[in-house]
Amino acid sequence: MVTSRFMKFQKTITLFILLIISNTFIQAQQSYKAEKEKKHELLHTKLKVDFNFKEKELNGEEWVTMKPYFYATDKVFLDAKAMLIHKVSLDGKELDFNYDDFELIIDLPKVYSRNEKFTLYIKYTARPEKVKQKGSAAITSAKGLYFINPNGLDIDKPTQIWTQGETESSSCWFPTIDSPNQKTSQEIYITVPSKYVTLSNGKLESQTNNANGTRTDYWNFTQKHAPYLFFMGIGEYEIIKDKYKDIPVDYYVEKKYAPVAKDIFGNTPEMLAFFSKITGVEYPWNKYAQIVGRDYVSGAMENTTAVIHGEHAYQMPGQLIDENTHENTIAHEAFHHWFGDLVTAESWSNLTVNESFANYSEYLWLEHKYGKDIADAHLFEDQQAYKNGQNFDKHLVRFHYNDKEDMFDAVSYNKGGSILHMLRNYLGDEAFNQGMNTYLTDNKYGTGEAHQLRLAFEKVSGKDLNWFFNQWYFNSGHPKLDISYDYNKLRKTVTVNVIQSQANEFKFPLAIDIFDSGKRTRHNVFVDGRDASFTLPYTSKQPNLIVINADGVVLCDVSENKVLSDYIFQLKHAENYIHKREALLEVAKKQDDRNAFEAIAAALNDEFYKIRILALENINLINKYAKKNVIAKIKSLAMNDKKTLVQAAAIETLGKLTDPELKSVFEKGLTSKSYAVLGKSLVGMYYVDKNLAIQKSKTLPLEVKKIIATPLTRIYLEENDDDELNFIASNVMSGMFLSQNKKIQSLYKKAYDKIAESNNSKAIGNLVEDIVDKGIQYKQYNFDKVGINLLRQMVQRQKTKAPENKLKNIEIIKTGIAKLLE
User: Are residues 417 and 395 in the same domain?
Assistant: First the structure.
C-alpha cells in the first residue's frame, strides 16, 4: 500500500503529514505481537454478493474450503466483523455456531485431521457502517466495504462501491481468517445494477444479464494470495485498455478523465517490464488493472491484479505537463505485486518486507526512467520524512507495538527503502537483483520475513549479513556522525575522524570524496566502530574540500565545521543532490557576500531542475538594479526553461520585484498550458496590473481554480473580494493543517478568520462543510476535536461581530458541531 504514504506525504495527504499529526498523541503501552497461530489453512474462497445501497449493506453467500493446519480439531474460528450470520452449514447440514460481532466460532460435525479438507457454507449480511475497529495513519478507516454516494443525492459525486482489506478489514465483508500468513484462491459473483462495471481480482470469466435489470459478473482468481488483497470495485467507469506483452493492463476511470488516463497510468506496462527484468521473475499474474475510487481512505492499495488509487491520481493536462505527481505511487503498487502479493509478510511485525521494497521501487523506477539525480532527490525527501517523524527509537522489524496499524509509518516504508539502498550499494546491483530473485522464487505464493530475506542475499552473495540485519532491521536509529580532520602537511595526508554520537553503534561502508587540485578522488572505507579514523593522501598544499557520505548512500546525520568557501566549492563541484542542496541552502544565508550571491546565481544553470528551482526560491534580489544580469537570466528561465516547474519558480521570484517592466513575462505565463505557471503568473500580474489579473482569474473554469486555489486565495484576500469567499472556504482546512508550508498555513488562517466573521452564509456553509469533512476523515487524529473548537470560535465571532445574517450563520455552524459530536 502507498500511503497517502509521503506519502506522501507530496500530492495529496501523505503518510508523512499524517504521521506528524498522529505523533502528537500519546502512544499506548506496546506488547509482543507475532505471527497469528495457524489453526486452519484457507484453501479456496467462493463468494456471491449483491448490495443494499439504501442501507449500505452487502448480502453474501460464501463457500470457504479449508483444513486443519496441523492439529486435529472440531472447531473453526473465522474473523467476521459486525455481520448478521444467517446460516452455517456443511454438506447441506446446518451447524451450530457462536458469534460475538468479531469472531465466528463454528462447531464441526466431527474432528478433522490436517489431511481432511471441508467446505463451509455461510449466508450472511455485511454491515460495514457498524464496524467498530479504527484505521491508522496510512489507512484512515477500517470498515472494509465503502458505499460512496449510494443514494445519488450528491450531484458532484458518482455512486461507487469499493473495498479496502489491509490490514484486517476484508473480514468486514466476508468471513475469513483475516491474517497475512493465510493464502487462498478465490471466485466471486458480483450482482449490480446493469449500468455499473465491476472489477475484482483475476479474470472476468462471464457476465450474465438478469431479468430485474441487474447483471452478475463472475471473477475467477486461481492463484493464491492473502485475504487482505481481495478486492471489489463498482461504478460507472470508462475502461481504457493497455497491455504488457499479452497481459491486459486496464485503467478504470471516470469518463471525464478517460482522455488523460494513459497520460496518468501509461507507464505501467514499462514498469511491469522493468520490475520483471530486475527481479528475474516475470510478472506473475494474469492481468493488471487500476481503478480510481472516490473518498478513498489511503493513497493506493496493491490488491492483486486490481489496484485501487485515491482520486488524487486524477490530474488534468495542465498538471501533468508539470509532473505526474502520482507516478511514484503507481510504481509502488506495481512492485507490490512481487513484494507483498507474490510473497507476503508473514506478520504485520514484518510489514517492512512488503513496504520497504515497494518504497524502494520508486527510487529504482525514477533512476531507470529519469536518471540518478531525480531518484536521489526522492530518496532525500523520503529520508527527511523519516527523520522528521519522531521515529528514531523504532525498530524496522517490530514485534512490540500497540496496534498493527502503528506499523504503517515512515520506518517500515521510508527507512526500509533507504536500508535497501544501502544493501544494494554494499552487495552491488547484480547480487542485489539475484537476491531479490532468490527470495521471491523460494517463497512464491507464500510468506516471508526479514530472516528469509537475509538468507536469500547471503545465499547469492556468499557474505555474512547478520551484522547488517541486526543493526538495521532488528534495532533502531541511524548513525549520527561527528566529523573532524587532522592534516599532516609534511606527509600530505589528512586523517578523517568519524565519531558516532547515537546510542546504538553501527558498522557501514562510507564514501569520502577529496577534492584536490581540481580533481575528485573517491575513497571507500568501512566504519566498524564508534570511533574510527582514516588517513588519506592528497597532493596540493591542502584539499579544496572533503565530502563525507559522498554518494549519499548511508542513512545518517553528519555534523562538521565548514566555512562559506567550503560550501561555495561544494555547491559547484559536489555530484550528489544531497550535498548540492545542503551547500546551496548554506550559501544562500550569506548572500551579502558577493561570492555567495554569484554561487547561487550560477546554480540557476544547474543541469538538475530541482537545483535550479532551489536557487530561484533562495536567491536574494534586493538591490535589483545592481543585479540586472541575474534578473535577465531569471527572466529567460521564466520564458524558456524546458521544465515548467522551473518556469513557475522563476515567475514567482520575478513577481516579488513588483516591476511593471516584467509584465510581458506574466502575460506569457497567463497563456501557459501549465497550471503551475498560470498560478504564479496570476500573482505576479496582480502586483503590476491588478485589473488584468483579477479579470483573468474570473474567467477560469472552476476545476482550474480548484487546482490553483492557493495563488487565487492570496489574490482574493488581498483584494477583499467577498464574492470569492465561497470558493476560498472549501480549501481552508487543507491549507491550514495539511500543508507543510508555513506561508500557506498563514494564508489560510487569514482566510478562516475572514470567513468566520463574515456575513456570507454560503461561505460559512462551505467552511463548516470542509471542517466537518476533515474532522470525520481524520477523527482518529482528533481532527474532530480540532473542528469542534474551530466551529465554536466561529460562533463566538459571529456573536461578537454581529453580522446581518448572524442567527442563520450560527445555526449553520451549530449543525456542523452536532455532526462532529455524533
Answer: yes
Angle, helices 429-443/450-461, rounded to nearest 10 degrees: 130
Q: What amino acid occupies position 279? A: T
Q: What is the 3-state secondary structure (H, E, C) of 348-382?
A: HHHCHHHHHHHHHHHHHHHHHHHCHHHHHHHHHHH
Q: What is the pLDDT of residues 144-195, one digit of tens each?
A: 999 999 999 999 899 999 999 999 999 999 999 999 999 999 999 999 999 9
- Using CB atoms within 10 Å of the CB of residue 640, give its burial: 0 to 12 exposed, 13 to 18 middle, 19+ buried: exposed
Angle at 391 between CA 389 and CA 395, to 5 degrees: 155
Beta-carbon neighbour count of residue 209 at 10 Å?
Answer: 10
Between residues 589 and 783, the one the model is more confident about: 589
Query: In this structure, how many other beta carbons lie within 10 angstroms of the beta carbon of residue 184?
Result: 22
> Looking at the structure, do residues 728 and 805 belong to the same domain, yes or no?
yes
Burial class (CB in 10 A: 0-12, 13-18, 19+), 241: exposed
Rounded to 5 degrees, φ, ψ at 303 are -45, 130
Would you tell me the crossing angle of helices 761-777 and 806-821 to the nearest 10 degrees?
10
Is 488 in the same domain as 439?
A: no
User: What's the alpha-carbon Rg for the chain, to the nearest Å?
Assistant: 29
Distances (CA, A) of 394 to 115, 192, 384, 398, 809: 42, 45, 16, 8, 47
Q: In b/e form, how buried is each residue of 286-311, taking b as 16+ CB within 10 angstroms?
A: bbbbbbbbbbbbbbbbbbbbbbbbbe
Give kind and range of the element (H or E) at residue 482: strand 480-488
DSSP secondary structure, 23-72, as one string: TTSPPPPPEE--PPP-SEEEEEEEEEEEEETTTTEEEEEEEEEEEESSS-
Residue 239, SS3? strand
Q: Please, are residues 533 and 526 in contact by the beta-carbon 8 Å criterion? A: no
**What does the alpha-carbon distance between residue 418 and residue 704 come to, in Å, rounded to a whole number?**
37
375 and 457: one domain? Answer: yes
Q: Which three cell numbers stand for residue 516?
A: 584536490
Task: Give the rounded distance of the alpha carbon of 706 from its chain centre.
Answer: 22
Q: Angle at Cα 681 formed by Cα 680 and Cα 682, nearest 5°?
A: 90
Cα distance between residue 437 and residue 441, in whole Å? 6
**From 473-487, 581-595, 651-665, 693-707, the region with the lowest mean pLDDT:** 693-707
pLDDT at position 789 over 90? yes
| Domain extent at residue 819 | 723-822
Residue-wise pLDDT for 649-674, tens only, equals 999 999 999 999 999 999 999 999 99
**Which contiguous run of DSSP H or E holds residue 521?**
strand 519-527
Q: Is residue 553 part of a domain?
A: yes
CATH number, domain with residue 555? 2.60.40.1840
Q: Contact at 8 Å (CB) between 324 and 264? A: yes
The Cα 46–Cα 31 span in angstroms is: 36
Asked if 418 and 521 sit in the same domain, the reply is no
Count of Cβ atoms closer than 10 Å to residue 475 Cβ: 15
pLDDT tens readout for residues 285-319? 999 999 999 999 989 999 999 999 999 999 999 99
| Residue 54 counted as domain residue | no
| Residue 543 DSSP SS3 | coil
pTM higher than 0.85, yes or no? yes
What amino acid occupies position 188?
I
Q: Are 269 and 165 in contact (CB under 8 A)?
A: no
Question: Which 3 state secondary structure label does DSSP give 188?
Answer: strand
What confidence score (pLDDT) does residue 282 get?
98
> What are the CA-CA distances from residue 466 to residues 35, 134, 475 (Å)?
22, 37, 12
Give the helix ranges, DSSP H, for 388-499.
416-427, 429-443, 450-461, 466-472
Q: How far apart are CA 692 and CA 686, in angstroms?
A: 7
HEC assignment per residue over 190-237: EEEECCCEEEECCEEEEEEECCCCEEEEEEEEEEEECHHHCCEEEECC
Q: Name the pLDDT band for 21 (thresholds 50, 70, 90).
A: very low
